[in-house]
Amino acid sequence: MSIDWEALRREAQRMTGRAYAPYSHFPVGAAALVDDGRIVSGCNVENAAYGVALCAECGVISQLVAGGGGRLVAFACVNENGDPLMPCGRCRQLLWEHGGPDLLLETPKGIQPMTEVLPQAFDVNDITAVTGT
Ligand code: THU
Fold this sequence. Notes:
35% of the residues lie in helices and 21% in strands. The protein is of the alpha+beta class and 133 residues long. It has one domain (5-131): Cytidine Deaminase, domain 2, CATH 3.40.140.
């Protein structure tokens, strides 16, 4: 499946315009290609209770699942200038769940697979290895 990184970046940057970031003043946009060809995207949504802010990646994952599910193939996250951003630790875990080791990310150091972004990730295999289910 060919990946149009430019289109993903464009959609991610468009999403920064929808961000609700009145506290950090740091709009974030994210977009991902799904294995059925659709693009899902999201923006950060902050809250007066600072700790419950939703990262842009949360929007991507919600749209993925609510839109019928699937596996993430490629992912881009940017600031309002369109510069690539690394997902926070929590969001790396969210991306791993729905993209696994082969998901590709655009990072400030170029395209990297999840295995480099979240080495030795915890996932469902660690659970089934013990519970058998
Ligand atoms: N943020 C994201 O949306 N994604 C990340 O991976 C890093 C941080 C947001 C959360 C908060 O609204 C703002 O950036 C500043 O931390």
